[in-house]
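Course assignment 3, question 2. Fill in each field.
Student: A.L.
Task: Predict the tertiary structure for the chain below.
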Amino acid sequence: MNNLFDKFTKFEENDPEFHEIFKNFAFNEVFEYSALTDKESVLVILASLIACQSPKAFKKILFKAVNNQITPVEVKELVYQSVPYVGFGKAHNFFGVVTKVLDKESIDVPLEPQSNTNPTNRHQKGRELQEKYFGKENMELMRNSTPEDQKHFNTFLEGFCFGDFYTRDGLDDQQRELITFVFIASLGGCENQLRGHTQGNLAVGNDKEKLISTITVIVPYIGFPRALNALSIVNEICG
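Answer field:
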């Protein structure tokens, strides 16, 4: 993964001391303790950079990774998946970054649509996925215990978050839940949601080792306080 660091920043010329420290940690040492594939590593790094609002670093890594560790469609789906979790206000700039990188790489846009829902079935499809990830009984409990004037948030989650995005092609269930875990961990202050999506990761087959590897790979980007908070939740949920 060291090749991703090439021209990552101008620090090599302007501050070679920091360049060497960060390069050795972020692109060498952390990977000694990770069981992620190269594709998974790129996905979680790019996801953390979206949540941390680092479009320049995102762009430089994407230039190295696209059509090598990650496909154009996977990049598109990564940014789409970020919207319900980091919000469009944070995701907005990254749509433009992806377009510029793909254009520079002579990849025609727009890419093929990946949607599998329509206005009629998006809520039903979203509900089915929620129940698959978090259990039908748990989802019914949540819906029944929500105050009447707040039930529309459940409707939004069902149709927009899960129906419009999780049902799409381009990334599989494991990849979507893994990058969702990264979005939430990178934001910080969302521990209850991180608990839920730790359970969601286990439900789709991402085990404790993969979650620890994920935190290991993103710690250079999100910092130790958020990384250790995420690790604490993984230990709490996974035992």
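Instructor remarks: The first helix runs from residue 11 to 14. The radius of gyration is 18 Å.
Grade: pending
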